[in-house]
Design a protein that fits this description.
single chain, elongated
């Protein structure tokens, strides 16, 4: 959604043109504190990693709750388990990173996490061993935790998070204003196709393209305009060697795209789509 930045500039230019100076100031302030980073997935992943690297549990939870309210809560219910897997993987990455930090701060941060997250996680079997983490000597060598201290598992979590956000943002309904550029490009391509067909229709009969050829090309355009965009299972890019049970969490997300492909991702269609129907 790189075009979002361009739309922001257009909105700001319009507000200035209209003389809405107070609105421009409020708009600029909102942009400075924009948690969605203009829907730039790489920036959002960087923000999450900032909270993890600095052991800011409150910041991490607040940011994830923001995403939950903005996007995840609007997804169909069968997608929610995959979302939860990513969230828990980030919490485990938080604990691993806090443990790796030098000095006594690491134990303090790990203990703080356990105390705050106990009510939410204590009833889940996959977290039973994790509550022993503060008392384990050299957890990176312990069979229960060694996998999570590998670079391969940590990278797989970030790949899964990146692909999840990118997929969701592509599928979620967009405001009409954000699609003007793609609509203009589509109209231009169609006009060029029409002009090309007109030129061919004016050529001698021996050089004309067969009617079937025209129909085939027009059918292709019709298919592009009416059919849903195919989604690539980017989660298959997650490293799969030597990751054992830890990566099953990430692999579970592969089904997310397949589930999305058969039905709308959002429970409701955008207003624009409904109006066109």
């Amino acid at each position: 959604m790189a075009h979002i930045q361009l739309v922001d500039e257009i909105v700001r230019e319009y507000l200035l043109f209209r003389g809405f100076t107070s609105t421009v100031k409020a708009f600029d302030n909102d942009l400075k504190t924009d948690k969605d980073k203009g829907f730039r997935v790489d920036k959002m992943v960087d923000q999450i990693m900032h909270y993890i690297n600095y052991s800011d549990l409150n910041g991490l939870k607040d940011y994830w709750n923001h995403l939950e309210t903005l996007v995840f809560s609007k997804l169909e219910i069968h997608v929610q388990p995959a979302i939860r897997k990513i969230e828990y993987s980030l919490y485990k990455l938080y604990l691993v990173t806090a443990t790796q930090n030098a000095g006594g701060v690491r134990n303090e941060k790990v203990s703080e996490f356990m105390a705050k997250m106990l009510p939410e996680l204590q009833g889940q079997s996959e977290w039973k061993e994790w509550f022993m983490l503060p008392y384990v000597q050299k957890p990176d060598e312990n069979p229960s935790f060694s996998l999570y201290f590998t670079r391969a598992w940590q990278d797989s979590v970030l790949v899964s998070l990146h692909n999840l956000l990118a997929t969701v943002f592509q599928c979620m309904p967009h405001p009409t204003l954000t699609s003007y550029e793609s609509d203009a490009a589509l109209l231009k391509r169609l006009q060029e196709e029409i002009n090309a067909l007109k030129l061919k229709s004016q050529q001698p009969a021996t050089e004309k393209t067969s009617p079937c050829g025209h129909q085939s090309r027009l059918a292709q355009y019709s298919e592009k305009l009416s059919g849903p965009l195919s989604l690539v299972d980017d989660f298959s890019a997650i490293p799969s060697e030597n990751l054992d049970h830890g990566l099953r969490e990430a692999r579970g997300l592969r089904g997310l795209l397949r589930q999305m492909g058969g039905s709308p991702v959002m429970g409701k269609k955008s207003g624009r789509s409904q109006s066109q129907n």
